[in-house]
Amino acid sequence: MSIYNFKEIEKKWQKAWDTSGQYNTDTSDKSKPTYYCLEMFPYPSGKIHMGHVRNYSIGDVVARFKKMEGYNVLHPMGWDSFGLPAENAAIKNGVHPQKWTMSNIEEMREQLKLLGFSYDWNKEIATSSPEYYKWTQKIFLDFYNQGLAYKKKSFVNWCPSCETVLANEQVVQGECERCSTTVVKKKLEQWYFKTTEFSEDLLNDLDMLDQWPEKVKAMQKNWIGKSHGANVTFKVDDMDKDITVYTTRPDTIFGSTFMVLAPESDLARELVKGTEYEETLEKFLSKMNALTEIERESTEIEKEGEYIGRSVINPLTGKKMPIWIANYILADYGTGAVMGVPAHDDRDNEFASKYELEIVPVIDEDDKMINSGEFNGMNKDEAFDSIVEKLKDQGRGQKTTNYRLRDWLISRQRYWGCPIPIVYCDDCGIVGVEEDQLPVLLPTDVEFTGKGESPLLTSDTFMNCDCPKCGKPARREADTMDTFVDSSWYYMRYVDNKNTDKAFDSELVDRWLPVDQYIGGVEHAILHLLYARWFTKAFNKMGLTKVKEPFKNLLTQGMVLMDGAKMSKSKGNTISPLEIIEQYGADTARLFILFAAPVERDLDWSEQGVEGCFKFLNRVYRLVDELKDVKGDTNLDNLSKEDKEMRAKVHSTLKKVTDDLSVRFGFNTAISALMELVNELYKYKELDSKKDFIIREAIETIVVIISPFAPHIGEELWEMIGKEGSIFSIDWPKFDEKALELDQVEVVVQVNGKLRGKINVSPNVSQEEMKEIALEDTKIKEALSGKNIVKVIAIPTKLVNIVAK
Q1: Contact in structure between 247 and 384 (CB atoms under 8 Å)
Q2: CA distance linking residue 176 with residue 319, whole number of Å
Q3: Domain finish residue from 420, 454, 483
Q4: How many domains does the chain have?
């Protein structure tokens, strides 16, 4: 008997697939229905990890199964290859980001090939290649010309020591992660995408996504944050100035006793200018610089503030309300000003209680208005409209709808990103680069010091240019784009990645999109998935595609854990996929990662589980090797009970696996069913009355079922049983309904959870009939002798459990 030599088998079939172009997809082919299977592409760090293995194994099963179902399957892979780690490596090790990135891509591509994933490598893209970012730049210019890209001043994290802008993830407990200097807020001109242009569409079209996890849709809905309320205008006392706030509770305006401003807002600075409170503001701002936005928004943070010497007039009570700055108000939310209603808002209440500000309740326990003048006694909902109407009559308010969603800040003061194709001319102002001058290439003559606003500023050859309009000397934009821009449209480029005339052909994209199945971590629920949706809507508006949503079905797989904790290098609890491949083979790694837990749940790594999957593959290999030459013509006459049960097991397993793959992504239960089938065949082949055609049918079914999960051994076994061509070129088999119709089925009978006998019943037996048959069985009567029956539990065609005392 031959031995399962996984190293030779996997090497053999990976070479065969590569040589034959097995997984290459002609996206222009209209002869078959399309199916687009996509996993979120990785950042090329140089090493794949178990999270990658899980994500990509899930997608690979789907892609292989759909191909066998007769679809023209697109299953591409590429690299999200711009990003800060490459720039940090350049600063630390003196290696150019391009060289570091390309080396990592080469390494990771080979690692992915070792796992036997069915990727069409002809569709490979890297977002840092000029062939890709040329079109990212063209898209930016299209957005700019459509008014969807614009520039404005905004606050950034600034490290005074490194003299550079830091991303939020580079700020650790208020300090620069590189040098531990306290980070401050600095206002710079920044580029934005107008995500708020499609706030309503992004919200409403969530209803179209019925194959998305509800938790992801809920997260996006909350992030978009649609609310109904009113803009209310307060007059600043002793100043010719108004302050407008947005509130969802205009019915509580009689209980508004103070106003709170974001300390970094222009409004706060304007109000204290030339007063003794300027120093108060600056000191408070210094304290705020040590906090992130997330910390300041947290309900747990202790509320802090300072009075800034000004007041506003409540438009309905006429009372003066002191103006404070506070740590829980942010400048870029709404107007950066909030009316404090401490009796009816927890944060305002905590703040007012701490600083002994007036607290006035205006709604009682029955939702009736109190302390609200002419509106007393009204229901609060009725008062909402009436109060807004009164404010409107006074020219001090109006009903409005607001969104929490803000425009997307895409400027990054980094080198290793897509250059923003904008030129600044003294005469012409902001000018977009002409399309025939794209791509604006990243220069090679830059210095990576970790200091300064952007390494691009160190390159005179890059920064100095001619104005595209007037030809006079001009300067290029030194910012690059957020890497989320690159990943917001890559799924469209895959469809048409060799196009040199445009980002993609609209007809091809309209045929292939939306992506039929998208797979990735739930941590991308807000940013990446929302930005990709926004891009699609922008393209739709510009007539580039008819598609309105990028991803039809979304699967968010769970994490891979070690002893209940997320695998991470810092914890020293990582397992290298390469070590598992070396010791057990890629098919074992894939089978375990798919079998150990439902795909949407976290998976706890188990060495014993890996060994178990390896033993199972060996067991299947031995079984097929032993029975590979068994032949036999199909003859359904004169089948014994055992023959019928074996055929029923074959076809019920095929039915279950088909349902699990096409409906539920129940990969773990599909593999479990396959294991049961293998066990049954081991028993059946030892019977004297066995039928060769049933054995042959079972073997072929086992080989087909195992192939999407463990493709190398699937191909090897297919060849071993004398089949020609790739197993992934055949049609997925259909189960035989008639084979499922047994004369009788065997049911286990337990007494107090212990096996006491077995009974044979009709497949259509009812629960009551099962109970009666079990209780009449001689062995069961003996087991129940002297006991009183408490209850009888019956699971049709499966189990009877009798509880007795």
Answers
A1: no
A2: 45
A3: 483
A4: 3
Instruction: Using alpha carbons, select from 621, 592, 617, 616 the residue that is nearest to residue 718.
Output: 621
pTM surpassing 0.90?
no
Residue 300 resides in a domain: yes
What CA–CA distance (Å, rounded) separates 1 from 621?
10
What was the pLDDT predicted at 634?
86
Q: Are residues 374 and 289 in the same domain?
A: yes
Q: Are 627 and 685 in contact (CB under 8 A)?
A: yes
- Verify that 284 and 313 share a domain, yes or no: yes
Strand partners, 560: 603
- The answer to whether 132 and 442 have CB atoms below 8 angstroms apart is no
Residue 413 has a pLDDT of 86
- Say if residue 654 is exposed, middle or buried (CB neighbours under 10 Å; 0-12, 13-18, 19+): buried
Residue 328 falls within a domain, yes or no?
yes
- The three-state secondary structure class of 699 is helix
Is there a single domain that holds both residue 395 and residue 438? no
Q: Are 177 and 171 in contact (CB under 8 A)?
A: yes
Domain, as residue range, for 305 = 227-402
C-alpha 58/C-alpha 555 separation (Å) is 9
Token pair for 644: 């019928």
Query: 503 and 542 in contact (C-beta within 8 Å)?
Result: no
- Paired with 430 in beta bridges are 424
Q: Indicate which CATH number applies to the domain containing 306.
A: 3.90.740.10
pLDDT tens-digit map of 341-384: 999 999 999 999 999 999 999 999 999 999 999 999 999 999 99
685 touches 695 (CB < 8 A): yes
What is the rounded distance in angstroms from the CA atom of residue 175 to the CA atom of residue 312? 36
SS (H, E, C) 25-53: CCCCCCCCCEEEEEECCCCCCCCCCHHHH
424: number of Cβ within 10 Å: 16
Residue with tokens 């067991």: 619
The answer to whether 346 and 298 are in contact (CB under 8 A) is no
Q: Does some domain include residue 698?
A: no
| Phi-psi region at 176: left, alpha or beta (left = phi > 0; alpha = psi -120 to 50) | beta
Backbone φ/ψ region at 735: left (φ over 0), alpha (ψ -120 to 50), beta: beta
pLDDT over 80 at 174, yes or no: no
pLDDT tops 70 at residue 552? yes
Is the domain of 299 the same as that of 437? no
Q: In terms of domains, do 296 and 421 share one?
A: no
- Extended strands (E) in 438-595: 464-466, 473-476, 480-481, 515-520, 551-556, 560-562, 565-566
Asked whether residue 393 falls in the same domain as residue 417, the answer is no
Shared domain for 389 and 419, answered yes or no, is no
Query: In this predicted structure, what is the pLDDT of residue 168?
Result: 67
pLDDT, position 1: 61
Task: Work out the burial of residue 397: count CB atoms within 10 Å of its CB; fewer than 13 is exposed, 13-18 middle, 19 or more buried.
Answer: buried
CATH of the domain at 752: 3.10.20.590
- Give the tokens for residue 149: 């890209």
Note whether 383 and 421 are same-domain residues: no
Burial class (CB in 10 A: 0-12, 13-18, 19+), 558: middle
| Residue keyed to tokens 């286990």 | 748
Answer whether residue 296 is part of any domain: yes
pLDDT tens-digit series, residues 371-423: 999 999 999 999 999 999 999 999 999 999 999 898 999 998 889 999 999 99
Candidates 747, 751, 746; CA nearest to 781 is: 751
Residues 6 or more apart whose Cβ sits within 8 Å of residue 88: none
